[in-house]
Amino acid sequence: MANDAAPVAPPASGQLLDKRSIALRQLVVRALDGGARGHIGSSMSLIEIMRVLYDDILRYRADDPLWEGRDRCILSKGHGCIAQYVMLADKGFFPLEVLDTFCRRDSILGGHPEAGKVPGVEASTGALGHGLPIGVGRAMGLRIKGSDARVFVITGDGEINEGSVWEAALSAAKHRLANLTLMVDYNKVQSAGPTQEILPLEPLADKFRAFGFAVAEVDGHDVAALRGVLQTVPLDRERPAAIICHTVKGKGLAFAENDANWHHKSSIDQKLVAQMYDALEAL
Amino acid sequence: MRPACVNKVFELAKRDPRVTYIGSDLDPPITRRMRDEMPGRAWMEGVSEQHVVGMAAGLAMEGFIPYVHTIATFITRRCYEQVAVDLCLHNLPVRLIGNGGGLVYAPLGPTHLAIEDIAIMRALPNMTVVSVCDADEMKRFMDQTPDWPGPIYIRLAKGYDPIVSRAELGFQIGKAIVMREAAGRGKRALLVTTGVATTRALEAAEALAGAGIECTILHMHTVKPLDEAALVAHARDCDLVVTVEEHTIVGGLGSAVIDALVEHLPGAMPPVKRLGIPDEFAHKYGSQDQLMELYGLQPPEIADAVRDGLRRRVA
């Protein structure tokens, strides 16, 4: 973790996963098994980010998902939705068994999350680059209402190739939206390959600083470090925050880590399901 | 029409705390008024249509009714995915105000013309598409916008157009207005029109009446949801339907009318002629009126098209 004044770029995480992180990943596999498809690597890199948000940071009521005082958590990288579904199920927004229906015809859980269908999902995402502009509007709306609820937007790294993210970043800084926190799941691998090859983002922290954000960097699989930095938001009373979470695509599945081939699988058979459970068992 | 629309937003904001306004790099006088008349609830954002539509969605999710204002082609084409996903999929009460719908920006060329805006907005579920005919009608329409569910695309035509709408005919979103009723026992044409094309069609109807051709003018200010009941009722006993729009013939009012007639009058459909801009980018400059003439949308050309259509009908 680092604050605005002393940036560091943690290396790709070799962080060991504890029992809860492994159990949450097993729930991800359960959903992948249910749907026989899904974004594997993109969900696994997000687990600790979503875990710490829902365990320690966000204010919400699982039995009253639209409670006015809740923090708004917008998963802009909608393709990582299984990681959010797992947390919502874990917290009781809906029963765990619903995970088994992932992507099935009459399920509430699609391959991208939909507001109004899934309790706890604030915006329908999946088309990339939509979450931050929406987050800016929500943060402004909350400010007009005098609410102390906060807005958290989680994007991917490939996602911030989208120009709309940077349009919104300029606006967030202009409006001094200290109630808005952007988290980037920076696993450094996008759909087609390494971000460094497809569209380099570095120096990413400097880019957000230049756009007017208070920036922190953190190992996105280190639960204590994530908790530490998220407990300090707003990082600045006059600026939105950007927390760059250094993560590993496919984290926890040794055979899939850092490999763009595991970004998404449109066919997941029982052999692969067993392989994923075995990999988690071995941790 | 534009001042009438913008003034109404400021007026609505005074009585409805949900109303907010977002401009995208519009002019300094509007920026000043926002500061003076809607402090804290109006923002002049940059040239960033994608962001602006998303931001409006976020505000609407928090219970506000944002009116987003910029040039028509940019608020429709540039950020189409945001309009589709952020506004229509979530079915949020955001109002998109598009300056210069149609050929208004004729001298500025094809990058600035919004001639397919109705088609692409109409294709989106939950979207309401409104194109009023003059400034007075704009005021009556705007009064109804705060409580209309879901997103609305508001097509602004040029300002200072003649006033042809009449208060006594009322205004209701989604309800067509009969601006003129065919009288007598001569040949009868039904002209279905929207926006400022209604003004041109009224003038054409006057000329035709002098020549013994009676026209009913059904002003379809709301292209979506289309008032199919009114359309079918009037189309049933006419000799010819002519649609008139300052818009490409691909997917606009004419297409909507044909869709509805095919559905509701199978085997009994009157002949339909669509007047609009052909399927091409404008290749001339000049004025809006000059381009409307080029595309056959001025009163004499409309009258000719009606005569021609009825002649073919007889033949």
Write up this protein.
- The complex is a heterodimer of chains A (283) and B (315).
- By secondary structure, chain A is of the alpha/beta class.
- Chain A has a single domain, classed as Rossmann fold, CATH 3.40.50.970.
- Helix content of chain A is 36%, strand content 12%.
- In chain A, the strands form 2 sheets. Chain A has a 5-stranded parallel sheet with strand order 1-2-3-7-6, with helices on both faces. Chain A has a two-stranded antiparallel ribbon with strand order 4-5.
- The model of chain A is unreliable at 1-11 (pLDDT under 50).
- Chain B is globular, with a radius of gyration of 19 Å.
- The longest helix of chain B has 16 residues, at 299-314.
- The relative contact order of chain B is 0.12.
- Chain B has helices at 2-15, 28-37, 49-61, 72-78, 80-89, 117-122, 135-142, 197-210, 228-235, 253-264, 288-294, 299-314; strands at 19-24, 42-45, 65-71, 95-99, 128-130, 152-155, 177-180, 187-193, 213-219, 222-224, 240-248, 272-277.
- The mean pLDDT of chain B is 95.
- The termini of chain B are far apart.
- In chain B, helix 3 packs parallel to helix 5.
- At the A-B interface, helix 5 and helix 6 of A face helix 3 and helix 5 of B.
